[in-house]
Design a protein that fits this description.
Elements (H helix, E strand, L loop, with lengths): L1 E5 L9 H15 L3 E7 L7 E4 L2 E6 L11 H22 L3 E5 H16 L3 E4 L10 H21 L2 E3 L3 H10 L14 H4 L10 E5 L8 H9 L7 E5 L5 H11 L5 E5 L3 H10 L2 E4 L8 H8 L4 E4 L4 H4 L6 E4 L4 H13 L1 H18 L2 H15 L3
Parallel strand pairs: 1-2, 1-5, 2-4, 5-6, 6-7, 8-9, 8-11, 9-10, 11-12, 12-13
Antiparallel strand pairs: 3-4
Helix pairs in contact: 1-14, 2-3, 3-4, 7-8, 7-12, 10-13
């Protein structure tokens, strides 16, 4: 098959969705399928890359930040990608389009179907689903809601990456059947045969934004300041100054270390240095950071939200607590900060769960089965 993959973010820009599209695209190509990726250009990244069965085009889209994009930038991607794909589709002749996010990529895929009859699949990622992060996206979702319904209904399939995200999507549009294809992880890259389990070193990975709940982690850890711990946060974002002020007020600023954005090799090294993963997020689809932490053999303390509640086995590979509950987070952290053996046992359970059940090859094969049904085998 020839798969056209659309995503406005693609490594090294963007977050989990970009990471997922890269891994899936390379998995498709490794399985012998042809893959063409269209994404947004940023900085001095090359406009075109090519290797066996795989080709990438970065097109102008007014992208200003590596970690996130705004409504204007998404609109620019829709316009730019529409012109580019309409021009090149007759030459490329893809069998199917895989669009990450209903908007912006789904809008481009919808147009390609209207003009050339190319079927498309929408991969829901979280921010494109009404009801997700209402404190950030309520107005945005109200504006795009009517267009999303049209895009979803014209798609050959709409896929969610977790049960929680599917439930959220079906509350918005209950008439659709939405299969689940979870994210995977390249667990071989993160496997850590030797680790220092003491003293406690917590790691969190993600954009420093309100969604990620780092403020809840600060409150929980402040109540545990008599215990031995250090907390490392890999990532950056607009919430960092406010978070640093909160940590000063709580008296824990000297024990919290902001690592900023890390390249892949450096991030893997920090997964190996840590011995406990803290993920107090308010909303997710299927968090790649949790999968990576588990692949590295870390016990995970996370909120009971979409994605995390399907990955973390409470009491076995970590602990799940109600979202927005700093007190519950504190009590879940306490035994794991005290008991080195508990961290070790839960970390091993995390690794085994990921190794047995989650891989990008498994996810890619699930998508390919869906594509083959759509395209008639």
């Amino acid at each position: 098959m020839h798969i056209l993959l659309l995503n406005s973010e693609y490594p090294p820009i963007g977050g989990g969705a970009g990471n997922a599209s890269a891994h899936l695209g390379h998995a498709f190509a490794a399985m012998g399928h042809r893959v063409t990726v269209v994404t947004a250009h940023f900085g001095d990244l090359p406009l075109h890359e090519q290797r066996a069965n795989w080709e990438l085009y970065r097109i102008p889209a007014l992208r200003r930040r590596a970690d996130r994009s705004g409504a204007l930038e998404q609109l620019a991607f829709i316009v730019s990608a529409s012109f580019w794909t309409l021009r090149h589709a007759p030459r490329l002749r893809p069998h199917l389009t895989l669009a990450f996010f209903g908007v912006p990529s789904g809008a481009v895929a919808w147009l390609l179907k209207r003009v050339y009859g190319i079927p498309y699949v929408v991969s829901l990622r979280g921010g494109d689903v009404p009801g997700f992060r209402p404190y950030d996206f309520k107005t945005y979702h109200r504006l795009i809601g009517p267009f999303l319904r049209r895009i979803w209904h014209q798609a050959a399939a709409v896929v969610a990456n977790s049960q929680g995200l599917r439930e959220l999507a079906q509350r918005f549009e209950p008439r659709l059947e939405i299969p689940i294809i979870p994210n995977g992880v390249a667990w071989q890259d993160f496997a850590t045969p030797v680790r220092a389990w003491s003293p406690p070193r917590l790691l969190s990975v993600g954009r420093v934004v309100y969604q990620k709940g780092f403020d809840l982690g600060a409150h929980a850890l402040a109540d545990l300041r008599t215990l031995d711990w250090e907390w490392y946060i890999a990532g950056d974002g607009p919430y960092r100054p406010q978070l640093e002020m909160l940590m000063d007020e709580l008296g824990v600023r000297d024990r919290v270390h902001f690592l900023g954005w890390l390249d892949r090799a450096s991030l893997i090294e920090w997964y190996r240095r840590a011995n406990l993963f803290l993920f107090p997020s308010r909303h997710e689809g299927m968090p790649n950071a949790v999968l990576e932490a588990m692949a590295a053999g870390l016990p995970v303390i996370a909120t009971r939200i979409a994605g995390s509640e399907e990955l973390v086995v409470d009491g076995l590979s970590g602990a799940l607590v109600p979202p927005q509950d700093a007190a519950a987070l504190r009590e879940a952290l306490r035994p794991l900060l005290v008991e080195e053996g508990l961290r070790r046992r839960m970390g091993q359970a995390s690794f085994e769960r990921v190794r047995q059940h989650y891989s990008w090859e498994h996810s890619a094969q699930a998508y390919l089965s869906l594509f083959q049904n759509i395209c008639g085998g």
